[in-house]
Amino acid sequence: MRAAALLLAAAASLAAAGCGWTLGPPEPIRGARTIALPVFENRTYRRGVETDLARALVAEVQSRTRMRILEAGADLVLEGTITNIEEILLSEGEDQAIRESTLLVTVEVLLRDGRTGEPIRPRERYSERESFVPGIGEGVRSARTEALRRLAADIVDGLGGG
Hints:
By secondary structure, the chain is α/β, with parallel strands linked by helices. The chain has one domain (28-159): ABC-type transport auxiliary lipoprotein component (Rossmann fold). The protein contains 3 helices and 6 strands; from the N terminus they run αββαββββα. It has helices at 2-18, 49-64, 140-159; strands spanning 34-36, 41-42, 68-69, 76-92, 98-113, 124-132. Strands 1, 2, 3, 4, 5 and 6 form a 6-stranded mixed sheet that branches. It is elongated.
């Protein structure tokens, strides 16, 4: 009975390994245990976005991966540029007051090998959109915070393969 249970457990482990399933947080690029997250370049006129995104990235990496964040000497380096932040009016009232608007944030990221400096994959673009309704107390700042949080989650999701 015990041998059958061990055999069943071993078969389940092999089957899970063969189909790409793993237990625990996603494992970024094989063998990488550390990552450097320099603050992204900000090519927009909106200041402070780069530091808000940096905080969101740190939180996502710490909560969803097993990687340690280092300032220098990391296995991986995630570089990026905030290329666009655009507020788009969705609807306005008769008095031209904004009823609903959306904020679109776009970034480009490049993952490099921390030892060689060589790109691990081509530059990737991520965009997130967050709507807000000023009439119920929502604003650009809350939309920006949520869009950046989701962007950070998307970027960390992108680290999971290689």
